[in-house]
Amino acid sequence: MLEPHSMSQNQRLRHDRLTFYKEDIDQIDELLSDFLRLSGAKCALLIDKDGHLVTKRGELCTIDIDTISALVAGSFAATKEMARLLGEEEFTAMFHQGERDNIQLSLVGDRTLLTILFDDRTTVGMVRLYAGDTAKKLAAIYQAAMQRDPSGSQLHEAFGTDAKSKLDNLFDS
Amino acid sequence: MVQINFALKEVNCKVVFYGPGMSGKTTNLEIVHQKAPEENKGELTSISTDGDRTLFFDFMPLDLGNVAGMRTKFQLYTVPGQVYYNSTRKLVLQGVDGVIFVADSDPEKMDENVESYANLIENLEEYGKDVRELPHVIQYNKRDLPNAMPVAEIDSRLNKFGVPTFEAVAYTGEGVFPTLKTLAAMVLESIEKMDGKAPRRAAPAAPKAAPAPKQAATLDAATVPAPAPAPAPAPRPRGPARPVGARRPAPPPHGAPRLRRPIPAGAPGRSAARSVGVTRRGAAIAPVAAPAKRGSVGLVVGLMVALIAAAAGVAYFVYGTPQL
Ligand SMILES: Nc1nc2c(ncn2[C@@H]2O[C@H](COP(=O)(O)OP(=O)(O)OP(=O)(O)O)[C@@H](O)[C@H]2O)c(=O)[nH]1
Ligand SMILES: [Mg+2]
Fold it and tell me: Ligand 1 atom closest to Cα of B79?
């Protein structure tokens, strides 16, 4: 693996974007649905480390996803920093216990966080058991996606001009 | 890092307001939250001390709407400016796509501005990023101060790379939107340029992270250099300068309570009298059902309480998860 400091400019730019294609997300969604069924958890969010949602499954109607994603990523980043200070390489999982709702976070690959919300309809043991398994399978999906040829999805060529007019609408109104 | 999600049909970008303590970063975000159309903005969440100093970050999603078939969103963050909070400040920078550096026009704050800009460069370097390749702009805030340093002078001390600059009086809203608009355009332009050379890879990341906040090699190839910033106008503040409220000479690291300038109409002020607070202010981005918002607050607060517990060393860390 390349260290950022030793990278060429092209390699560095390759870092600068995270792209998810539908065929991969479909597989991930299926995996997450299986996980929810087996574990009895309420919902599963896959969030990238920068705090953006990748995909979600389950009962989500009452959640402000953008904010949760930002807070989860921030919280995980803070924990990771604590781990570093303690000489651990990284905590690979975190558990937040509430009175009714709980959150379990597991690191998947090195860029995404599997975030599981569950309540007293299941147990942390069940969730952890299946989460570990799911995280492994997710990592395998990522690996496979890395090997494969890209699907060719691309931003529409009008993206730039359309973006400009949307910015005008938003900020000059 | 820009996330392009062809499954959700979304483009997500992360924008960070950076700068020294008390320069007006949170105020910028509050104004954006106040003035952005209802359908474009999400809630504003602030993790701050009882003195309204930012402790971890403020956060607000801003939705540009459907851009050529992709729902395009900016996740806006502020950092804590106080020197003391560098560890959390650095965390907020992870994956940043664009920076608005909010400088204080007070001549006494010039050293702090310079120091904070150097700190930005240093923290970006830790993520393997070069500030010259990152879309960023500088905002000269507090132009209403009677002794505000002349723009040319701050410029010569601070703007080493000749990026676009803006004059602002953040607490009146002056200059806030022009600053954000230009930065947003620069970020979107950088995506477009990258995309010009075809995306490559699909999902994320090779297994097992390197230590420290460095990022691992991954994903799609993007072969075009970041755009040179477009020159942009520096709007002069209009209208009468406001008297300066509640500024104090040297704020203590943990922020004594201070007066907030009145934020007009309907915007509830920051919560007072909590040692560490999570403040949320409403507005919904379309698919998040409005009535559901209340329900989310408990969960978010629960999460934050857990975070704080973690910070106090009480959290329950699980080691047993399989290595990936
Ligand atoms: N005179 C003047 N004061 C301003 C202006 N904008 C913001 N302020 C005041 O500056 C103080 C600090 O503003 P914040 O937005 O909280 O500063 P910050 O950069 O978020 O500070 P940290 O969170 O500690 O990093 C507040 O009292 C604001 O009302 C301005 O344009 N002129
Ligand atoms: Mg602040």
Answer: 25
